[in-house]
Task: structure prediction
Amino acid sequence: MPGLRKMVREGTGLLAVFSILPRVEMIEAIAIAGFDAVIIDLEHGPIEVGDLPQLTLTARAHGLSSIVRVRENNPSLIGSALDAGANGVLVPQVGSRREAEAVVAAARFAPEGARGANPWVRAAAFQGGPDWFAAANESVAILVTIEGTDGIASARSIIETPGLDGVFIGPVDLSNSLGVPGQIDHPLVVAKSSEVIDLARERSMAVAMFAPTPDGARKWLARGVTMAVVGVDAGHLVAALSDIRKRASNEQGGLATTVEEEERT
Result:
């Protein structure tokens, strides 16, 4: 698998999905469906650091890149996620250049950062040699989330942070911070998101965008984002099961109607 950092920096039209269900079967399903990456969500899901080895290993076995969204901008959490085998990290609620620099420092080994160095973690196959640290620096992708008014105001300086690979726009939190909670398609949210996209594109910085629907994902990909993160696994599962139940119970036509017609003939 090519390094996620290279894929994020050079890729276009990438698709990912959030996972809040701590199940290897869900990671397998996301991979089988053909997504480029999964974002394993420790911020909003009931997933712990101890769950990460099996989840990241499952992703790797299926050729799926794994990004871990940690709970907060904390060096220990960032290092633990990467030691567990994640290909990249996503840090929420970054509102300044200084905060972005702290993320980079936590995710890169010296001399590029200050990540705790241990070559016997599973990310290094428990036997990393002297070259492993440089290889990890080269391959690990670092993304920070711009999802508040502070982040919007500091977007230019955040994007210019050395060593940062991409910014992620969180429209749900952004809508709340802008006073239009939950209205992710509100003109104000769209305008502020577009400002960040333009700044990122000017500096050849990767930018990811959350979109709960395929239509929304296509819209933002056409707008120039590098990666669209299409919803959350639990939400997709409920929607699919609800649709199946409605169709089977003939609430929207479908299977039951077809069976009745066959019996009449």
Residues 4-232 form a domain with the TIM Barrel fold (CATH 3.20.20.60). Residues 41 and 191 are 27 Å apart (CA to CA).
